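Case study 2.
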Amino acid sequence: MIKLDHLPGSRLKTWLLAGAILLALGGMAAAFHAKDSIHAHEPQWLRVAPKPLVLRLGLVGRLEPASLVTLTAPFDGIVQEKAVEEGDRVERGQVLLRLDTAQLDIQLREALSGLLKAKRTVHDLAHWPQGQEVARARRAMTAIQMSLGDTERKLTETRALFERGIVPRMEVDALEQQVSTQRLDLAAAQGEFKLLLARGDGEERQIAEMELVNATARYDALRALQARRELLAPFAGIVMRAPGTTSDMAPTEPVQRGARVSRGQPLFGLASLERIKVVAKVEEGDINLLQEGQPVEITGDGFDGITLTGSVASVGAQVVASNSYGSGASYEVIVTMPALNAEQQKHLRLGMSARLSIVTYQNDAAIVVPSDAIQKEGNQLFVEYCETEGGAARRIAVKAGRISVEGVEVFGLEPGYVRKNE
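Prediction:
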């Protein structure tokens, strides 16, 4: 211990000054501590205003073709040329296979012959009154009329001669019989002519017109098949082996050049690269957050920096089998997107993994407050609110919405200040 009475005067003054400074600093520290304690117990008011609130759900899935078609033989024929193999990447409109049309050409010529005959029949019936059959019937009827006229004139002359006693009665009787017969022939000819003339406007014309329609359709159908002698890719995609026709749908053996194929026989499978989808799984705890039409952002490690946008197309209603015993149920989610452009098709591959960021909720003008700013009395929620900083505070009843990392979305509150509870 230092005795002050043994110290020189200058050193004594120095020690006294240092002690005074230490006492002053201690007092200041105590004052600041007291001030901080007072501020710590003062209420905190936080500014709240509308701002966007977006909640997302992240999933992982894989790229799969949105369209998978089986291309079949359009008609019976022989494979003339096979231009692609399984696994090849093809562009829209590219030739995949050509068929020999020799047998089809025979059917096409037969159909054309039937079409020409049907057209001629319809034309003849449309101009029936001026046709050859009607002209012949008219000539025959006219000839009978002329013969009847001659016979009737002879009968008149013979009767005059008979009355003068020049000719016998039997000649008159013979001419009368001939006139009667010719009149019957004329009546029959007139009836036949009337029926023949009616053919141009009756059922025969309707039948001929329907046969023409059928012949035209048959010919056009064969022409359409002939135009499909080249099997073209309906979209850009990957050539796959065609599925089989058995119950297990096992792939069929690839067709080869020179093979005979029948109409409807599967030739190729084609998986689209233009229209793709993402298939993912969602756990049962999150499935109720999803619904059709929600926007989705799609990225992936193999996307080469490409970000795609899509939407939820379907949310599975049936559980997907799980690989682990006791794990929660999972459901399939399908996300579709617009058609890919040529550049995107170069970088994306079927089977790639994809990360999905699904917007499950969005409010562009949400008011979010800290959870400790909300008070509860019974079933009602309140916040301490003032319209301006330092203004009069009042309690406002609110309804809680979605919960985010920033706080709780509330409804029934205007922009202003809320009190954060201690």
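Helices lie at 9-40, 102-126, 132-163, 169-198, 203-227, 342-347.
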